[in-house]
Amino acid sequence: MEQVLQFLQELSENNNREWFNENRKRYEESREKILFLTDIFINEIRKFDSEIPLISPKDCIFRIFRDVRFSKDKRPYKTNFGSFIAKGGRKSENAGYYFHIEPGGSFIGGGIYMPQAGPLKAIRNHIEEHPDEFLAIINDPNFKAFFPEMMDHKLKTAPRGVDKNHPYIDLLRYKSFAFSSPVKKEILLSGKYVETCVNAYRELHKVNAFLNEALNDF
C-alpha cells in the first residue's frame, strides 16, 4: 500500500495528463491493489451481510478520472482511490460500505450518502416509526467506538411537512445517513488494516440493515 500512497502523492503534485500517461503503469498497478482489497472486503462482508451479492470489484471501485465539464476545478484526476460495496455496486442507491485511500485523508465508512427525495423521505419515515431502534444502533458503545456520529450533512430547518418541535427533529434534519472514521497511515500500512475495516463494517451492518429496510418499504 506504500506504493499506492506514493503514486497518489505524486499525482497530487503533478495532476496533468502528460505525467499521468508517463506513469500509467504505476496507476494500473495501484488500481489492481485496490481491486484486490475490494475483493477481500466483499468476501468478508458477505459473511455477516447476506444482502451483499458476489459482485465484481470493478463494479465497486470509483473512476480516478474527474468529470470537469461543469467544474471550475479542471484538474483531470482524483487523488484518491475508493470503493463502495453494496448491492448494485458504486452506483447503488442502497446503504453500503466504503473505503477511501488518500495520503493524509484515508477513512472507512458507509451508510447512505445524499439519497434522492423519495428514498430520503422513506428513511425519515422509518426513523419516525422506529426511533428507539435506530438510536439504540447508533448509540451502542461498540458502534460509537468506530463511528462517534453521523456526517454533519443536514438541513438548517425542519424537513417539509415535519414539525420543528418534533421530538426527533435532530435526526430528521439529516440529508445523509452516512458515517466515517479516519484511518491513520500506520494502520493502513500495517497488517491490521483489513481486520480494522471488517470490524468497523460489522458494526455498520446494523445501520445498513435498518436503512435498507426503509428503502425496501419505499
What integer is the average pLDDT? 94
CATH architectural label: 2-Layer Sandwich
Per the CATH scheme, the topology name is: BirA Bifunctional Protein, domain 2
What's the story with the biggest beta sheet? 4 strands, antiparallel
Number of strands: 4
CATH class: Alpha Beta
Unreliable residue runs: none
Count the helices. How many? Answer: 9
H/E element order:
HHHEEEHHHHEHH
Condensed summary:
The chain has helices at residues 2-13, 17-22, 24-45, 117-129, 131-138, 141-146, 169-172, 185-188, 193-217; strands at residues 81-85, 96-101, 107-112, 177-182. With 218 residues, it is an alpha+beta fold. A hairpin with a 5-residue loop joins strand 2 (96-101) and strand 3 (107-112).
What is the secondary structure topology, with strand pairs?
Blueprint: H1 2-13, H2 17-22, H3 24-45, E1 81-85, E2 96-101, E3 107-112, H4 117-129, H5 131-138, H6 141-146, H7 169-172, E4 177-182, H8 185-188, H9 193-217
Antiparallel strand pairs: 1-2, 2-3, 3-4
Helix pairs in contact: 3-9, 4-5, 4-9
How does this structure look, described?
The protein has a four-stranded antiparallel beta sheet, with helices on one face. The model has no long low-confidence stretch (mean pLDDT 94). The termini are far apart. A hairpin with a 5-residue loop joins strand 2 and strand 3 (107-112). By secondary structure, it is of the alpha+beta class. Helix 3 packs across helix 9 (193-217), helix 4 (117-129) packs across helix 5 and helix 4 (117-129) crosses helix 9 (193-217). It is globular. It has nine helices and four strands. It has one domain (2-217): BirA Bifunctional Protein, domain 2 (2-Layer Sandwich), CATH 3.30.930.
